[in-house]
Each structure stands twice: as C-alpha cells, then as structure tokens.
C-alpha cells in the first residue's frame, strides 16, 4: 500500500538518475482514509527516520495541510495523532508517482506501487 510512511522512503532508481530523485511526486491520485491503531511509541521511534520536508510536501500534494512546516521539538499527543493520521491512515489507491528528475512514472494500482524497472533502466 502506498501510505506516506512508505512514500517517504522511496526514490527513483533509474540508471543515471542519482540527483533530485526524491521525493517522488504524486499525480492523478485517488486517496482513501483508513483508520489504524494508534501507537505513539512507534511514532516516537520512527520520527528520526522521516525526511520532514518531503513528508509535509507529499501530504499537501494529497490535500492534507495538518502538519507544520517545521518538525516540532515537543512530541505531544495532539501532534502524534496528527502524524499518525498522515503517515498511516492516508492511502493512495490509484495514480502515479513521478521522479522529479528523470520524469519516470511509477504507477499505483489497487494501492500497490509498481517500482519495477525495464532492463535498460536498471543501473
């Protein structure tokens, strides 16, 4: 499933595409929200792995403006609930992720991204 927790870890790996290949941009997406169990300890442990600017940008591409521009220093419950929603409850069901550098398209179908490359694209 393409959730923003997954998207925040994805970059383009087309041969020769080594700069400006993250984050992938969303286009023509269908988004659904699915509730999931809140786990504040997981979020506190995972937050250091997040590329914050990319997360905020992707959330805004999908219509969610709940995250602050800058990552807050205090991880209170309100913030953790907001982060949980953005990372784990917003699902991209259909659409495309596009590399900002080489413009390679990674289609999303039934919530599953196709990250496979053709043989000539592998580097």
TrEMBL record:
<dbReference type="GO" id="GO:0030488">
    <property type="term" value="P:tRNA methylation"/>
</dbReference>
<comment type="similarity">
    <text>Belongs to the TRM112 family.</text>
</comment>
<dbReference type="Pfam" id="PF03966">
    <property type="entry name" value="Trm112p"/>
</dbReference>
<comment type="subunit">
    <text>Interacts with TRM9.</text>
</comment>
<protein>
    <submittedName>
        <fullName>Trm112p-domain-containing protein</fullName>
    </submittedName>
</protein>
<dbReference type="GO" id="GO:0070476">
    <property type="term" value="P:rRNA (guanine-N7)-methylation"/>
</dbReference>
<dbReference type="InterPro" id="IPR005651">
    <property type="entry name" value="Trm112-like"/>
</dbReference>
<dbReference type="InterPro" id="IPR039127">
    <property type="entry name" value="Trm112"/>
</dbReference>
<dbReference type="GO" id="GO:0046982">
    <property type="term" value="F:protein heterodimerization activity"/>
</dbReference>
């Amino acid at each position: 499933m393409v959730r923003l927790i997954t998207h925040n870890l994805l970059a383009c790996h087309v041969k020769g595409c080594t700069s400006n290949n993250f984050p992938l941009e969303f286009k023509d997406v269908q988004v659904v929200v699915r509730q999931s169990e809140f786990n504040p300890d997981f979020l506190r442990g995972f937050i250091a792995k997040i590329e914050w600017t990319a997360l905020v940008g992707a959330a805004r591409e999908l219509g969610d403006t709940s995250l602050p521009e800058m990552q807050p220093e205090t991880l209170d419950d309100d913030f953790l609930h907001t982060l949980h929603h953005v990372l784990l409850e917003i699902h991209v069901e259909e659409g495309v992720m596009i590399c900002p550098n080489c413009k390679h398209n990674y289609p999303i179908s039934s919530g599953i991204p196709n990250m496979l490359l053709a043989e000539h694209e592998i580097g």
